[in-house]
Amino acid sequence: MGQKFVSIFTKSLLWLIAITMAVIFAFRYLELPYSNVLLSLFSACKLPTSGTSTFHATGPSPDAEILKNVTMFNQPNSVGEHVFEEVSKTRMSRENVTYPRNGFDLEPGSESNKSIGFYECNNSSIVDSVKRSGNVSATEQVGDSSYNNTMGLILLTNCSRGENFTSKHEDRSGRPYANSPEKAPTYIDFQPYANSPEKAPTCITPPLSSITKVSRNITNAVLSQLDNETISMKEESFRPPQKDGNTSGKNSSINRVPKENQDSNIPVPEVTSISEMNKLLLQSHASYRSVRPKWSSAVDQELLHARSEIENAPIVKNDPNLYAHIYQNVSMFKRSYELMEETLKVYIYREGAKPILHSPFLTGIYASEGWFMKLMEANKRFVTNDPKKAHLFYLPFSSRKLEEALYVEGSHSHKNLIQYLHDYVDTISAKHPFWNRTGGADHFLVGCHDWAPSETKLHMDKCIRALCNADVKEGFVFGKDVSLPETYVRNALNPTRELGGNSASKRTNLAFFAGSMHGYLRPILLHHWENKDPDMKIFGKLPKSKGNRNYIHYMKSSKYCICAKGYEVNSPRVVEAIFYECVPVIISDNFVPPFLEVLDWESFAVIIMEKDIPNLKSILLSIPEKKYLRLQMRIKKVQHHFLWHNNPIKYDIFHMILHSIWYNRVFSAISIDT
């Protein structure tokens, strides 16, 4: 009798618990939006993992990759937005994700139950982690027009696609890839929405680490206030982790063992977004170390001290020369620049004959390397005649002159060019001890020709390479190499002639592009947009005009200037757009923008993946007018960093190139005593 009573009591208790839980669930479900149900039911930031369920975990899996395809979801509740912002920030599997409109629609059956697991989050809240994400970029704020009056979360879908095009195995000058024709991409396989093109979504695929909500009707004053509030949070997020030892600062809390030449071990995805590039850069600055010097030098300790000073830079507020919103971390940049001016000494080797060495050229699309050579060799502030005091050693050769002097037409071979550089390195290493001390790790070169990466990767691989052809997939090493701006200089006597453009209100064209059909991407661009829309001024090569007036006129009178890659990832249009105060729209997967160590490119440019060309106009139109005006204003603020002057001035392009080289050297330095 007693056992029966216990059994009945137990069953009743279980039923009571079940009913109570059901009531609680129903109450929470009806009272709160479903995002709050999730947070309240799964406390301590535990969310179901991906499997056969229709929602994914916020915690990354060990094999996490970037999420590719997601559907648009509108949720006015702020907590829910933070949840899904955090979901978008994590690196998740390449699977389609569907966020249900009402509640969580888990697939029925035991298999779905087996697929559900949990990840533990750290002690910081989701809201806090979102607040640390920093500024929202232009491309991240593009959304479906039907959500213009909401504070909706924008999750961008995969886009419609076009047709196949085949590229030649040549560089932009029409010469073939001699040693590695397989590096030239052959096609992009675009599959169009054949049956229902009107259903092709309007979208882009920006860096998913910072996809977030945007208000379409927020006032300028509020936008400005939000901008100001994000500066310190963005700066903190872009400080590289500090290591213990000689460079540890007062805020150092991470134990990190220096690693030599670990750059090749950092994995990169097939298409690397700007967000991923920033992560790789921070990882490299935290872990990459150059070759340990064979003997000690006072300059090593100076570099280590500079690193500590930069990592613990005082907060900069309202510097009249630096508009904080265009920088990754304006405080670190200002302190680093000051230390460069106070400390840096560069030794320039005198060996080598013209025209390949010590022979700058100052016009054309490869002029960056020539202008830097001219201004560096004439500089009195940074150049030293005592190599023992040098923090950096400059190898003053021209990759363009090397190609002009030594390439044999029709040979399809770079071997003699590479051999020339090998002999040059042998000469300076035999005559001077400084190359041998670090294996060339404190040496740098500046090369803008397309072939510079392949010509220097064998015998100058440990050097800091400033390259216009800054391609993640072609050996660019984050934390060591530098993306060199490709500048089309038309007038060597006055490189800033015709600077500027029409005001924003007088820019009548939505978008402009003109250029030769180099590579596979530009034919795709013209296929979709040439003569298709009066707002889209998309052309092949324009008819010749005096001083290229037609091209410049379009640049000056367009809101957005399309910077589509040619045979290589780089294009002079990026700097040209800034020069003529046109917002650059960069379409070049895996291109590392110039001065990435310093500049927040998403704050003043639009970056679109190559596969999204069919939706180009919709993407640009979906950027609110206020956002465009902000982008255009910031172009003017960043412009002084991209201007050549016969006599260099503070923060101009010469100093910015030198600073990027200095900055990477500081963060890769290692003492023999470390």
TrEMBL record:
All residue ranges annotated as the Exostosin GT47 domain in the record: 341-621
Residue stretches of biased makeup (Polar residues): 244-255
A Gene Ontology molecular function term of the record: glycosyltransferase activity
Coarse class of the protein's main subcellular location: Golgi
InterPro entries per record: Exostosin, Exostosin_GT47
Basic and acidic residues bias: start-end ranges: 232-242
Keyword vocabulary terms for this entry: Glycosyltransferase, Golgi apparatus, Membrane, Signal-anchor, Transferase, Transmembrane, Transmembrane helix
Domain of life: Eukaryota
Protein's membrane topology: Single-pass type II membrane protein
Region of interest (Disordered), ranges: 165-192, 231-269
Positions of transmembrane segments: 12-30
Pfam family, one: Exostosin_GT47
Subcellular localization, as worded in the UniProt entry: Golgi apparatus membrane
GO annotations of cellular component type: Golgi membrane
Family designation: Belongs to the glycosyltransferase 47 family.
Name of the protein described by the UniProt record: Exostosin GT47 domain-containing protein
Native source species: Lupinus angustifolius (Narrow-leaved blue lupine)
Species lineage: Eukaryota, Viridiplantae, Streptophyta, Embryophyta, Tracheophyta
